[in-house]
Design goal:
Blueprint lengths: L3 H13 L33 H25 L1
Helix pairs in contact: 1-2
């Protein structure tokens, strides 16, 4: 049974990017979160790694904002 927090993080990860697996492990190569199957149809982070996935999403958000700021300075 997954917690509501894990489901919310899984949804955020799915919205951020499509899971990328190597077909042998149910782990996304991009963010390191578990996926629901080897084909990686959706993210399914386990309970112990929810905080890591949240930190990864926050870091991606910061990187995106930095990129947007740099782009706006160039224009």
């Amino acid at each position: 049974m997954t917690s509501e927090e894990a489901r919310l993080v899984a949804t955020r990860l799915d919205e951020d990017h499509r899971p990328e697996t190597n077909g042998r492990m149910a782990v996304c190569r991009r963010c390191g979160a578990q996926t629901n199957d080897l084909e990686g149809h959706a993210h399914a982070p386990n309970e112990g790694r929810v905080s890591r996935s949240t930190a990864w999403l926050d870091a991606q958000n910061r990187l995106n904002r930095i990129g947007w700021a740099q782009e706006s300075l160039r224009n």
